[in-house]
Every structure is written in C-alpha cells, then in structure tokens.
Amino acid sequence: MSALLALLGGCRALFPRSVGTEDRLRSLPSENLPLEGEVQIYWNDYLVPYVVADSNRDLAFTLGLLHGHLRGGQLAALRKISQGRIAEMVGPVATDIDAALRHLDFGKASPEIVDSLPPDTDRWLTAYVEGINTAFARARRRPPEAGLLGLKMEPFSVADVITLGRLAGTDVNWLAAFDVLKERRNGGGEEAYEAILRTGIEAVPSVDPPPGVPSARRDGGDPAPPTARQEQALQALASLLRGWSRSGSNTVALAPSRSADGAALIANDPHLGQRLPNFWMLVGMDSPDYHAVGMMIPGLPFLALGRNEGIAWGGTNLRAASSDFVDAGDLAVVAEREERIRVRFWKDRTVTVRETAQGPIVSDAELFPSRDGEDIALRWTGHQVSDEITAFLRANRARTVSEFLDSFEGYAVSGQNLVAVDTEGNLGLVPAVRLPDRRSPPSTLVRAPDEVQRDWRRLRDARHWPRILNPPDGVIVSANNPPYDHNPAFGYFYNVSERVQRLRELLAERRQWTVPELMELQTDTTSPAARQLAARLVALVPADTVAGSPLLGAVRAWDGDYAVDSRGASAFEWWLASLVDAYRESGATLPSAEWGFLARQLPDRLASLPEEERAGIVEASLRQATPEWEEAPTWGEIHRLEVGYLLANLPVLGNRFVVDSFPVGGSRETVYKTAHGLVREPHTSRYGSQSRHISSMDDPDHNWFVLLGGQDGWIGSAHAADQLPLWREGEYLEFPLRRSTVEKTFPHRTTLRP
Q1: pLDDT value for 353
Q2: Rounded to 5 degrees, what angle do the CA atoms 345, 12, 74 make?
Q3: Residue 333 DSSP SS3
Q4: How far is Cα of residue 321 from the mean position of the Cα atoms in its chain?
C-alpha cells in the first residue's frame, strides 16, 4: 500500500505539466524577502539569470534563492546522497550504498569547518542558506519528483552545504582502488596495483617542471566471492561518486601570441555525469565585490569556473593522492557510533561506524571489497578541516592571474589543476590540493599504519607547490594529468594521457586560434591511444588473416576517429572486447581490463605468447566479434547518449524520464568524452562532456557557455533541456559581463523586494 501511495504521489513526475518561462519566473518568491535592498535579476531566453545587488549579502541570498527555486529537487536529493540517505528516497535497494556512504563519512569535518569559517565567509554562507530555505518554504508546489522520491524539502544548514562540498570533493582514486581491492580480495591484486601504478606514474605532464623541482619518475586465504547484489551495488556507488564529484575535464589556456584576437583565451570542458538536471547552473552576478559570469554547482555558493573583469578561469581534476588505505588490524578503536539508515517501504537498518586515529574503518561496510576479517581504515584529507569556499570566493574576486593563484591557500579537496588567464595576457596554473608528504608511490595499496603516520606528519598545500606562470610556448593544457613532474608526486592513478596529447596535437596545427576554432576543438572525437593500440594489435595478426577479415580490414584502415558514422571505431571496439574475453578464456593472466592498462600493455602480453596460442586467441575473438560488428557496423549504432533525469535509472518507470537518446561520437578519453567500458552490446554513455565554456579576454562580453540539458531542474519546464539542440550542433550561448549589455539582451526581468 505504501508503494502504491508513493506512486500516486509521484504522478506529477510521471505525467508532468508543461511549464513555460513566465510560469517559472512568476513562481520565484519576490516580495517581503529578507533583503537589505531591492535586487534586480535579468534573464535571457534560456532562463539564465544575471543578478544585480547593492550588497554582497543580498547577492549571496539571491544565489541561494535561485538555486532553491531552479534546482530544489536536485539540492534535496544531493543532500541525501552526501549524507548516506538514499534509501529514504528509493527503498531497500540502496541500503548497502547508504551504509558505505556512512562509513566514508563526507560530513565528518563539517561541524569543525563551520566553527572555523572566517566571518565574511560565514555571513556569505548564512545568507546563501537563507536563500535556499526561503525558496523551499515559499514554493507554491514541491518539485514534481518529490512525491515519487519522498522528498520533504527539509531546510538546509551551513553544515549541509559543507558536506555537499565534500561529496563534490570525492577522491576519484577510490574508484581505481576499489578495482584493485576486488582483485586483492580474490587472492590477487598486487599485479593489478602495479599495472595501474605503472600507467599512472607515466602520465604526461602539462608542462616541463619549474627549475629546481625534484622528479618523481622511476623505472620502470580465499574469501567467499561477493554476491551479484553486492557487485551491482558497488558499481552503483562508484557511478554515483564519479557522476557527482568534480572528477574530469579539459582546459586549454592560450597566450595572446597564440590568439587571433591578440588577447588570452581559455576553454573549459568539465566531465561529469551526463544526466538531468545538469551538474552546473549558469549565473551572472554584479555586487560591490563580485562581478562575474560562469558556472555554479547547485548547493555551493561560488563560481567554480567563469569570467570576471580581470580574469577567466577553469580547471581539471588533479587525480591527487589525497587518501591512504590503512591496515587497521592492530589499531585501537577510538570512537564508535550507531547510524540509523531509514529505509523507504521497508524496515530501518542500523550500522556501526568505528573510528581509529587514522580514520574510519571503511571495511566494515559490506560493499567495501576487503578480505574476510580484515580491518581497513581510510585516511583522507577531506576528513580534516579545510576551507574551499573561502578559497573560491577569493578566486572569484581576483583581478590578475597572480591573485587567482594566491587564492587557494587552505584549499584541500578535491585536488584540482586550476588555470586562469587575465586581461594583461598572463596565463597560469596552480595545483590546488592538500597532500601528505610522500616521497615515493606506496608499495602496496593497503599500507602499514606507521608508514602512513610518517607521511601524514607534514601536509603540503598550494603554498608549497610551484606555480606555472606564462610558459614559453604560450600554452597550458590540462586534462586530469599532473601539471608537471614532481617529487612527492601529486598522484599515482592517472589515466593514459591521450586527451593531453590530442589537444597538443591539435594546437600545434595552427599558430593562432579563434573562438570558433576552440569551439570545434571541444567536439573532437579522435583517440590517439586507440589509433595506436589498433595498429599494434593488427600488426600481431598474420597478414592473410587480416586480408581475409573485413573487420580487421576496417580496423587497419581506421584513423582513430570515433565519429558517429565510423566503421573502424565499431570494428575496433567489438574486436577489443572479444580479444580480452578470448585472452582470459585461454588461461592467460590479464590483471586489469581498464583502458589505460589495455592501451599500454595488451599488445606486449599478446606478443609474448607462443605464436600458436596467440593465433588461437585471435581466431576465437574474430568468431565472436565479426557477427556482432556486421549487425552494428558503425559507431553510432552501438554508442548513444541518453539524456534523462536521475529517475531514468528506475526500473519499469525509468523510460518516462528519458528526454532524448541519440547516436554520439567520442569515446573513453577523447576530447569530447563519452565514456564507456568494453563494448559487448549497444550501450549509452552516462559520463563525460556535459558543459562547455570559452572566454576571450579581448572584451568583457566575449564569453560563451552551453549545458547538456538546460538551466531548470523542474521536470516539465521549457528550460529543462532547451540547450540540448545547441549542444548537439556544437553551438553556445553568449553570456556578456557588462551590465549594460545584459540589460539590452536579457529580455526578462524580476525585481526582488525586502
């Protein structure tokens, strides 16, 4: 009965009413607000707001009001995710995920952080939260999905915002670590760890290291298997963390000498979950201290990337080694608490969270892939006090690249390569992260407590890392790679560096670049690593076999471009998956099927096999792959982008929340990223490129943005996915900075009154 009532309560989501621009504007609370003065909001035809406030406090309140109004359902859901309360929305299928999130404990440091905030940041956050809560309290209706998910639109607190920021600051290395830990649990793991580590430490840096920077380069009992339910839940947890953390991105910065406009250029392309509502909102602001346009994460009160009068900025995840897994078998438990997980449609569950001096024992969570009876603690800089909000507020006010680079003292998670350009033609990069003082890669993933304690005695942050300022070639390229080679290393689990290599390859094709050319660059779908891997694999196959196989002929002729109509991309992917299957079925050892490992090591492993054995693997793979390829011979026939709400993941009802599904180019590590695994069937990309930004410093109004989807999170809104046609055509919205231009080009206006 409760499930039926929930379904009836969710009918507004299942059968949403169409809502136009004027309806959404009229429903924004605008009278009798806790403001110091009137606030003007100008809107363009895509419901992008530009806020003009006479005080910083009123600006912060209005930003919260807009976030609560346009993305209320998303905010309420994100808070539950960050606090391990997903089962309150979807029922018992999420209890294991919630238990794992309670052990990861994103809110562990939130109370201390709140108490330590500088007064200006505290006032800003308090006003911002008041804005969110005003939107919730004064809303005429709850978001359409509220009934289906049981969302009660509870008031936010400052601590909730801090915890949500910690979710966005997830250490993305956990995802690679989970794979190694699964192998380790099954009696292996060391070879998988070494394989991932070797790929990671060979990552290509953005630039040569500054003078005097030391190098980090170097040469060269069986438990019961997990249940299918546990494996699926672990995959869901990994997908959640990847989709909601700031875990990807490309950024290119060009000096005036490389720009046809004679001014610095910057292009950003964040990589996150490809779902509705988008992870980002477009917002403009004008107050005494803040005059900028850019992209905000709903629930966080700053522009994470954008443009002000002096600078434009963006960044990419540094994949910094912000965590250690610690053997906690001999560590004392210093605290223990019971956590109650409320479960919709089912009885509640209680989990015990144990703390050591090194961190929470995460192996107590059933999903955590540890060996039987093993205690593993997590030591993460995100469990310590740090202040990312103040750092970004300083960066939003910076007027030069040097001021921007100086803003990130005290910043800890998630580690970011933050890049900026300014109106004077400077460009620079700062590694924004706090890391333990390791001198070499850990020899094992699960480390001895004394080793970890030694490394964590001293922590380094942006004050200690050399900055990159005006490199000689006038180019900074960042794509989740280390900024430069450095000891101690920033991280160890880097992917192959093909996006950096491809961007450099493209940038070398012309001396000076225009904005339209950067727009085209952001949609590039060629993979140098796939092109190289395909050639190396074909070279191992006897010539008569290649000549006799149309599939291998298509692979040999392929240029590495994952275009929608590419036959070579489809042939390569069908064959690669079949080759991995046949390799393993032959009994040969393959410690990892991750892309970085396959791209670097699969050809060498095949080459080392006896010729007869290798021929058998190739023949078996072709028998499997050829009919699949003949059924779907182009990349677009097997690779699609499905644009839908988070509710699209629901069984049975999910299809009602899919807005569009279309063939798409790109692949795992192309510039236009549309991630996927090994291709064993037609599939959809759910992670990758989902927003874009370009600014030219020649004019304050020359800023272009586009979202995969739209501004509004309200299901049924005309602005929930109205930017999707622009996205598909590689087009952008121009977002001016000058108030005078905004007044002329943003046709809708709202006045907020005290």
Answers
A1: 97
A2: 75
A3: strand
A4: 16
